[in-house]
Amino acid sequence: MFGFGLENAQSLVGIAAVLLICWAFSENRGRFPVKLAIGAILTQAVLVLALFGLPPLRDALQGVGVVVDGLATSTQAGVAFVFGFLAGTPGQPYPLTDAGALFVFAFRVLPVILVVCALAALLWHWKILVWVTQLFGIVFEKTMGLRGPPALATAATVFMGQVEGPIFIRSYLPSLSRSELFMLIAVGMACVSGSTMVAYATILKDVLPGAAAHVLTASIVSAPAGILLARIIVPRDAAIEQTQTYDPAAAKRYESSIDALIKGTNDGLQIVLNVGATLIVFVALVAMLNGILGQFPDVAGAPLSVERALGIVFAPLAWAIGVPWRDAPSAGSLLGVKLVLTEFTAFIRLGAIPLADMDPRTRVLMTYALCGFANVASVGINLAGFSVLVPERRNEIVGMVWKAMMAGFLATCLTASIVGLLPAAIFG
Predict the structure, then answer these.
(1) What is the pTM of this model?
(2) Is the pLDDT of residue 240 over 70?
(3) How far apart are CA 15 and CA 321, in angstroms?
(4) N vs C: which end of the chain shows fewer Cβ within 10 Å?
């Protein structure tokens, strides 16, 4: 795909830029966590190298693609049963002139979220996901210096989502230090939930080889990046943080497997409705702005638009990550769309870019840079969610949620920079 050379070293600029920006916004610039920075970056690099470089783990990642395809196929069977030919299955009562038009987001992506949420609830009831969460919690506790409860919540966030993860330590949230609370919000925006991982992989599978492996890796390795940047912006107060343990299984229980499937489906329905409604509203608002900007004279031979403006603003950051300069405007536009609209919209646009119109290196790096919940809509989601989970600290959360969004956004950029720094051969 692409070899090791100056373009890989270019990603060092992105790593330095992300750390410098977060240090500039730090609440205590004199307490930069040097050891944590080195450890977190090495942890990310080692995780990526292990997942793609070690044959057993590489085979397991490739198996993820098979699982994703199986989920998509099974989901389509259910969608076709309910919606018939609208699901894009054979049997349309009209001649097809464009087979690509059969890919309808509402019928091909959103239903996958329902199925994955139901499966996640079932796996949690069977203790499988509890065990996985505890394992990752131990890893974060031992390697990143987190206390038990925040480590478990961070691990749960990687698989369950930005608000769902902290639910598992709800009773402990009031006693978290300011740094720990900020870290949970930031990590939630740096990662994506298991249900959306599958959705993103479905969107990209036709334009990115091993899309499922890249999306899964992106969400997992962005957690250490989120922890690091959160600790830089709001440094740890060791005097306040005392070691305690917590049982995640006690926070969410189902009466039976059927109860888990029903409640998981209900939870998935809420996510589907929120995703669909958010996309409709934000895309409509951008269309309105583009309509207004279109009334102005063309600039440099092209009409003004929100996407074009975002491409100009974020092009330098895209280049710093490791994107070739010729792709920097389009990559910068994707970063801006992810931040202002949602990562769903950005992934849809990335998936729509023809293979010949974007360098393979750019496509891989942007997959990692976009794979996080950090966007304006998530600010509202976190504020609403944490106001319910820990209402006594709502004012404190209001003052930190925008910084947390910035940390989450830059965390995925840091992850992309580290991926860009590594030899391309491991992804072949």
Answers:
(1) 0.79
(2) no
(3) 7
(4) C
